[in-house]
Amino acid sequence: MAEHDHEVEKASTTDGLPVSPSFGPTLIAADVPQQSTPIDVRVLYLSALSVIVGVLAALMAQVLIRFIAILTNILFFHQFTRAGMVSSINHPLIRGQFGPWVILVPIIGALIIGFLIRYGSRAVAGHGIPEAMEQVLVNQSKIPPKLTFLKPFSAAISIGTGAPYGAEGPIIATGGALGSLIGQILSVTAQERKILLAAGAAAGIAAAFNAPIASVLLAVELLLFEFRPRSLIPVGLACVAAAAFHVAVEGPEPFFHFGRVMEAPTQWALVLYLIIGALTGVGSVILSHTVYAIEHFFEHLPIHWMWHPALGAIAVGVIGYLRPETFGSGYYNLDHLLQLDANHASGVLAFVAVLGILKFTSWTISLGSGTAGGTLAPVFTIGGTLGAVLGFACNHLFPSAHVSYGMAALVGMVAIFAGASRALLTSVVFAVETTQMPTCILPALAGCVAAYLVSSFMMRHSIMTAKMASKGVRVPLEYHADYLDMVLVREVMTAKVTTLAADDPVEKVRTWVNSETPESSHQGFPVLDANSHLLGVLTRRDLLNPKTPPDTRIATLLHRRPSVVYDDCSLREAVDHMVRHDVGRLPVISRTEPWKVVGIVTRRDLLSAHRQRIAEHYEATKTLRISDIRSKLVTLRNGNSHA
Fold it and tell me: Is residue 558 within 8 Å of residue 529, measured between CB atoms?
């Protein structure tokens, strides 16, 4: 043994690594886990790409919005302009100019959409966000390049011909497809491609609504499924670039207007906004179930699915003829809802209720038929009308609370989206950013939290994820810190390690392995040299291989570089290292004494580490008893009296 400690032998190589004939792979060739860092040079590269994606997504968003407006005005008003379709909540122009023929406009648009879906791509259908989510979850964020153009074109046709959607869903899908396209052209990882997809999608929303913070939160809650610096920074920069583009083109004005400065709510008004949010949460559940019930109905019709959008468009046309305000995105409706006050609320209450019911009917039938369009605008309209009606009821029952009708409408708008999509933080911040009214934050938070609670209690999956879940796609419902990343290897490793000597013959070791002692029952054994330095790991299969001559030294059986882990590494780093090198156990070494084995960690140890996590989540215990507090107080009082 000592003779081999000092002799110099000619090295050979194994897989390109220097190998000592006596002791297997040299110590310098050992594999250790890569140290994870939140920020590196790669993040800077992604950030630069994301800014480019953000600007391009903002440009495409503005082009799409203008195209929809121009198409709408050409078809409904015979004028080439990008002005809004209807300027008044009771505008009679469409009925006056076209009469019943206006019903045909959305039907013609739906026929074109059906053609694009059948001969272009099935992904053209849908409201944008779920499709982007599905690509992230099941397809490594690889969106077919043709959707970068088909999705906005189909959405423009759909909304421009009167379908009751907003452009935000297609904008998200288009921006995400653009980011994914760049991520497929360049050499990036699947994780980095997801970041570029999320950056493009979020940038589109930031450009449309001038709401960059809400857009970042939307990416976190619905696309990234994580909260990490290396993804937040690129997405945030993309949203900043897109919002700056919006300000340069549209100006810094808020997207929605109250028409007056809103005062901070009273404490009783805040309670009523909470109740409005809870009732709106029930509405979000009804809305989600209705959409999927109608989808189920259309799926069982005895005609080809290509014609389904045209059938749904019949309802859109008829309802739009009765109430032109249900045509298109109808953002102007939201401005009118926010500007309601006590002086004229009762006069338009019936109209508001009818608008909400008809928009709900038109949108659910159209979306269920499988056409293309976004959810935010119609959902906001439905929630806003519900909030306004509930606000009127609250003021009638509790006049001293001074509930604002406009604020109640805003709470309904964002609360129904929070309940339907489970994007809680996005909804709250969206209310503040799009109105630029800080006093909205408390009512919006109260309403959104209540709606989120009710929706989560009544419905497992959101309107964004229910269809994916029905297809067997596992959608993350919660985002939390990786438990394995919070536990160190030294906390779960086995400190008492059974090792083998490098110079021992195979025959001797085989006899010991077959002795069935507790020490010999392990599946893997670290191999040490005469100085107790690690050379590698051998498994039972290596030792019991009948083709190996009995007099062979253990060291010559080592066929791969040793994979080790430091005792201060996290279990996440250890797991990744095991997977990367396809091993089931890792010798543990110390940074202060490299190559000295201080323990071993196995897959079983990694699983057992979750016992503490399970106990923290499911085992309810009392850690402080009232009797203990009372006895301590008595002891303390007696001690003071004696003093």
Answer: no
User: Which of helix, strand or coil describes residue 524?
Assistant: strand
Short-list 488, 464, 486, CA closest to 477: 464
Tell me the Cα Rg of the chain: 32
In the chain, the N- to C-terminal Cα span, in Å, equals 71
Query: In whole angstroms, what separates CA 494 from the centre of its chain?
Result: 38
Q: How far apart are CA 470 and CA 458, in angstroms?
A: 17
Query: Residues 420, 286: contact at Cβ < 8 Å?
Result: no
Are 523 and 540 in contact by the 8 Å Cβ rule? The answer is yes
Largest CA distance in the chain: 106
State pTM to two decimals.
Answer: 0.82
Q: Are 259 and 338 in contact (CB under 8 A)?
A: yes
pLDDT number for residue 90: 40
Which amino acid, one-letter code, is at 31?
D
Q: How far is CA 549 from CA 24, 270, 500, in A?
A: 17, 82, 18
In which residue ranges of the chain is CATH 1.10.3080.10 found? 41-470
pLDDT of residue 244 exceeding 90, the answer is yes
Name the CATH architecture for the domain at 41-470. Orthogonal Bundle (1.10)
**How far, in Å, CA of 441 to CA of 454, rounded?**
20
CA separation for the pair 451, 445 (Å, rounded): 10
- The DSSP symbol for 16 reads T
Residue-wise pLDDT tens digits, 597-626: 899 998 888 888 888 888 877 777 777 777
Note the CATH architecture for domain 2-32+483-617: Roll (3.10)
Beta strands at 597-602 and 524-528: parallel, antiparallel or unpaired? unpaired
How far apart (Å, rounded) are the C-alpha atoms in residues 524 and 635? 56
